[in-house]
Amino acid sequence: MVGARPRPVDGGGGPTAGVAGRAGPWFTVVAVNDSAAPIGIVTVTYSPGEYLTRFLDSVPGATDRGAVVVMADNGSTDGAPEAAEAKYSFAELLHTGGNIGYGAGMDRGIDTLRARRAAGEIDDEFVVIVNPDVVFHPGAVDELIAAAERHPRAGAVGPLIHEVDGSVYPSARAVPTLVSGIGHALLGKVWKDNPFSRRYRDDADMTRERTSGWLSGSCQLLRWDAFDAIGGFDERYFMYMEDMDLGDRLARSGRENIFTPAAEITHAQGHSASAHPEITVPAHHESAYRFQADRLDARWQAPVRWVLWAGLKVRCAVALWSAQRALRTGQAERN
């Protein structure tokens, strides 16, 4: 930990975490102390509702450094991001211009922080990406930074993720091969403990700090230079697997993806995705194809890509029918 946790400044409409003042639509950032500038945090919002308030309430306790939170908004209609910008003096709203996807939204938010990084107003080594339905446990961001400092080759560091029911989410996973990916896709629902899914989840030990193939994009600490070296997120991924792709490209560039249980968050995942299977199910399968096809790009592998594409189309149709049926059944039971 660096220094003492700053005392919230009264009058800002909420916790300030060591950030004070406004200059037009932007903030004037005041570092907590001379040795540690505030950490930049980016979240992508799309009508996040009350989850955004819980997330922002947890930010001041997550780090002693102070923070600047950019909300890259992909077209919210619930007014939550606007209300949050008015309430929290360390949060600012960036309209991306539409629902451009998770990775593209993160890239826009990170780009917004670059001028502040160059001016020394925020930490120039690390930036945090996080979902707006996450709640940081006390000291979580500082623990992520400490882990990154223990691992100089780390390009990304991820925390232990608790589900809302208290279970631990397997957030540090192996990068799937074509065979393990197909096995997991075919057997994961009907045989939970099949060898392909076990290899993919790579969750046998969530109690120690270790290297992983990739980390959940719900919360990561990134090294700026490592992120920039691989060109940020691949914006062809609208949603799903952009984090897997990022982690794999970091590893291919010589960086490490480090999981640390010393940092903890709670994630209310899936609360909106399950309500819109007509969007999420096709997006998931399109991302699955893109990830494997990019890594099977030789001309002689074209037949493999064709079979993969056809198989995923069939699986997508079945999964979408099943999800919509479950949604209709749930609505009928509530009525």
TrEMBL record:
The keyword Transferase applies. Pfam families: Glyco_tranf_2_3. InterPro entries: Nucleotide-diphossugar_trans (IPR029044). It comes from the Bacteria. One of its GO terms (molecular function) is transferase activity. Keywords: Transferase. This is Alpha-D-GlcNAc-diphosphoryl polyprenol, alpha-3-L-rhamnosyl transferase.
